[in-house]
Design a protein that fits this description.
heterodimer, A: alpha+beta, Serine Threonine Protein Phosphatase 5, Tetratricopeptide repeat, Alpha-Beta Plaits, Rossmann fold, six-stranded mixed sheet, 18 strands, B: alpha/beta, Hypothetical Protein Tm841, Chain: A,domain 3
């Protein structure tokens, strides 16, 4: 698209424009991630918004129609389902508003686009219970305003005005939201929106989108893994070993390699380029593949699994799951639950106390609307309670609840300990409404302390934080910044204990060894007499300890 | 001649109270290995809980036999022709059934014995017996008293917190509370008795939270006519809860009783319960 005099956008124009926006955001997402006010290593706004866009584009590509309204409708569905994190959800509502305004329109001219952006802004505001100025909401509102004032010319001119308005609006966000000023950043969600709009403008102007960051190994990995999963879900393989290797080299001949691997067995997958090739095959002779790899280049990763053993373990696992399911769906239980949890140990704990479906957060620890919706649909009953366990997941949970035909309700838990307390309060004999109420009451019975490393220097809530310091987040407020996890934990607990609390539960993450956790527990027992200290192997990423106090 | 009330030992009625009210209490038994002890008579609560703590094998329980009921009824029939016999939920024990059989035998001899399934336990039964005695003293008939007790049934709530579900499970009365079984996380289960059966209510992480919840379960009701606290071992804890409830209810009298051995077998040590009667 190099024509800069654009009267209108067709469905395929829109598709390409959004694709460019998504790509531009992908290339710049780290920059957006870096300005999250909370200097914690998860809930990345840039990544969340990009993943939301990726889902949007998947639906856009699936839509065969050429009408602008139809393509936007498909995008709206994709955005809604793929929405992750608060910014992702608001973005999906913007797209939804846009689609609603221009439903039956074959092509989008400036006037229609301006009307759509206004509707997008209105829809986004309506979706948020407590709209806050100085966020992505302000930016889309300013954008809609600018669009309205510039709808007489062509689309490129409108977009140019829109991008300028977005840039200025983002720059003003610290004036509207004090916590941004204190941290010395602009609003990440707003910045993400600006980047998306900038990508659209660049596309309309024919400017190049591709930057230095080519398709990273990361995306290669994800696609590979999903195809491998499909292979493994397909028919039983007559071969004994599932073998995977990553071959590094120079001038690797992918097609040649593929032909030779095809002769070794089945479920063959060979992807990559001349410097990096990933191979997956079910074979009886893993050694042959390894030899092929060392012959062609060097082996960077090797994985060999005994397929029959895996199958047996799979059956065992299913039996365990069946037993657990029997226990939970004891005939009288009319209600089931979905919880968002990161960390294998924590997930096991949630299932152990009776959670029907555990949803993993994915790369940013924020699952998409679709992920949560799928879990709701997989529950054994028609009445479902959803526990987001994070303030950034509540909105996506609400979207999923709205999308399902089941009777579902979100109990707005903001941490795993809150989620557990809520689950324990669940009465399998009561109905949805009574349970939701009891579960919500239970949320306040526990205090949560999360210990992690600050990814950025900042000042927040009066606390000065240096990058690399240990921070303690108490019930979503950053309270302590200090040098070691124990100090952070002690400082936080000193403030909270002393009332009627009696139980400290230390849930340690993937980066902490059992010995370290035990040592910390011993220290806590000595320091907080009158409290019992329990240890749980949570396995969660990013957070060294998630501590609950009851 | 007024109607006489009879009950069984699962009512947890303190001995003095039973004597004052003139209520014969037919005892259930706990069985340690080969030896059987009538609760409250051949084994005191203190001795029982001590043995429970040291016993390698879990004791079992047994209901009074038909013969035990015949003996008690015959005794009472020396002073009256009419008896209302209030017993623990038939879903939890064969006591009611045995009492019914004894009553049928004596009916042939002209006795009028109305056997009532309380559909509750402990404090719930206590409230019923107290109301029945009062009504009998005012000249109520057997039918009247039966109606009063049946009318109380749906208005009675009993909640208990346990240290563990192990005893309930092994005693075989877990019923729907099995939904709470099998957790790695250390939790205190709160159960209720409703419609004569054990029901799961909720689980909490700490004892003190459990006590808070019991307190809330009582005080969230607008119109309480009767209320009591029952405990197995920890008298102090029970007294603290009793006082707290009484204060919240404007100094209302909160009864206190000890949970007997038979319930102890099924609940384990560390049980604390509240029972209350809502007004009509």
């Amino acid at each position: 698209m190099t024509d800069t005099n654009l009267a209108s956008l067709s469905g395929s124009d829109l598709r390409e424009m959004f694709r460019a926006a998504s790509r531009w955001l992908e290339l710049n997402k780290e920059q957006v991630n870096a300005i999250n006010v909370f200097p914690v290593p998860d809930g990345d706004t840039g990544t969340n918004m990009h993943l939301t866009m990726r889902s949007t584009m998947e639906e856009a590509d699936r839509c065969q129609e050429s009408e602008a309204g139809a393509v936007l409708g498909a995008m709206s569905h994709g955005a809604l389902m793929g929405a992750r994190g608060n910014s992702g959800v608001i973005l999906s509502q913007i797209v939804r508003g846009l689609a609603l305004a221009v439903k039956d329109v074959p092509v989008l001219d400036s006037k229609a686009l301006a009307a759509g952006l206004q509707q997008g802004s209105d829809t986004a505001y309506k979706a948020v219970t407590k709209p806050t100025e100085g966020t992505i909401l302000t930016v889309i509102r300013d954008v809609a305003s600018a669009a309205g004032e510039n709808s007489n010319g062509d689309v490129a001119a409108l977009m140019a005005a829109v991008v300028d308005a977005a840039r200025d609006s983002v720059a003003r966000t610290p004036d509207l939201l004090p916590v941004l000023a204190e941290a010395g950043v602009v609003d990440a969600g707003g910045q993400g929106l600006f980047v998306l709009l900038e990508g659209m403008l660049r596309h309309l102007r024919g400017e190049t989108i591709e930057g230095e960051a080519a398709a990273a190994d990361g995306s290669l990995e994800k696609e590979f893994l999903s195809v491998v999963e499909q292979h493994h879900q397909a028919e039983e393989s007559p071969y004994g070993y599932c073998t995977e290797v990553l071959i590094e080299g120079q001038a690797l001949l992918v097609d040649d390699l593929r032909e030779r691997v095809l002769a070794m067995g089945d479920s063959v997958l060979v992807v990559g380029d001349e410097s990096l090739v990933r191979v997956h095959v079910h074979t009886d002779d893993p050694g042959a593949l390894l030899a092929l790899g060392t012959g062609a280049g060097s082996l960077v990763q090797v994985k060999v699994d005994n397929i029959r053993h895996q199958a047996e373990r799979f059956v065992e696992l299913h039996q365990e799951q069946d037993e657990a399911a029997d226990r939970m769906s004891a005939p009288e239980s009319q209600i089931s639950s979905v919880a968002v949890v990161s960390g294998e140990g924590l997930a096991d704990l949630f299932r152990d106390v009776g959670c029907s479906q555990v949803v993993s957060g994915g790369p940013t620890m924020n699952p998409s609307t679709r992920d949560i919706l799928d879990a709701i649909e997989s529950c054994p009953t028609d009445e479902v309670v959803v526990l987001p366990n994070d303030k950034n997941i509540i909105m996506a949970a609400n979207q999923a609840v709205e999308a399902t035909k089941k009777r579902a309700v979100v109990v707005p838990s903001r941490s795993a300990p809150q989620g557990l307390a809520a689950l324990l309060a669940m009465n399998p004999e009561e109905g949805l409404d009574d349970n939701a109420r009891a579960m919500e009451d239970a949320l306040t019975s526990v205090r949560t302390i999360a210990i992690t490393t600050a990814v950025r220097s900042t000042e927040i809530g009066g606390v000065a934080v240096e990058e690399g310091q240990m921070i303690a987040v108490v019930d979503d407020e950053l309270k302590i910044a200090t040098d070691s996890p124990e100090e952070a934990l002690d400082a936080a607990l000193d403030e909270l204990t002393g009332g009627s609390t009696s139980l400290i539960t230390l849930c340690y993450g993937a980066d902490v060894t059992e010995e370290e956790a035990q040592a910390t527990a011993v220290h806590l027992r000595a320091r907080y007499t009158g409290h019992e200290v329990e240890i749980v192997a949570g396995g969660q990423p990013h957070y060294l300890y998630i501590v609950s106090l009851e | 001649m007024s109607v006489r009330i009879v009950t069984d030992s699962t009512a947890d009625m303190p001995a003095e109270m039973a004597q004052e009210l003139g209520i014969p209490v037919v005892p259930l038994s706990v069985v340690f290995g080969e030896e059987s002890y009538k609760e409250g008579i051949e084994i005191s609560h203190d001795v029982f809980y001590e043995r429970l703590g040291h016993s390698k094998e879990l004791p079992t329980t047994s209901s009074p036999s038909v013969g035990d009921f015949l003996d008690t009824y015959r005794d009472v029939l020396k002073e009256t022709d009419e008896i209302v016999s209030v017993h623990v939920s038939s879903k939890l024990s064969a006591t009611y059934s045995n009492a019914t059989q004894a009553a049928a035998i004596l009916a042939d001899e002209g006795a009028r014995i109305e056997v009532v399934d309380s559909r509750t336990v402990s404090l719930g039964m206590m409230f019923m017996c107290q109301a029945a005695v009062k009504a009998a003293a005012e000249g109520a008939s057997v039918e009247d008293i039966r109606r009063i007790i049946d009318g109380m049934s749906p208005r009675i709530s009993v909640y208990v917190v346990l240290d563990t579900l192990e005893y309930v499970r092994r005693g075989g009365r877990i019923g729907r509370a099995r939904a709470f079984l099998g957790t790695m996380l250390r939790v205190k289960p709160i159960l209720s008795f409703d419609g004569g059966e054990v029901h799961p209510e909720e689980r909490v992480r700490t004892r003190s939270l459990a006590l808070d919840r019991l307190f809330q379960m009582v005080t969230s009701n607008p119109n309480i006519k009767e209320v009591g606290v029952a405990y197995s071992i920890n008298a102090e804890e029970a007294e603290a809860l009793r006082r707290r409830i009484s204060e919240a209810l404007d100094g209302m009298n909160v009864q206190m009783t000890r949970i007997g051995a038979v319930a102890g077998v099924h609940g384990g040590p560390g049980v604390l319960g509240v029972g209350f009667l809502r007004a009509e």
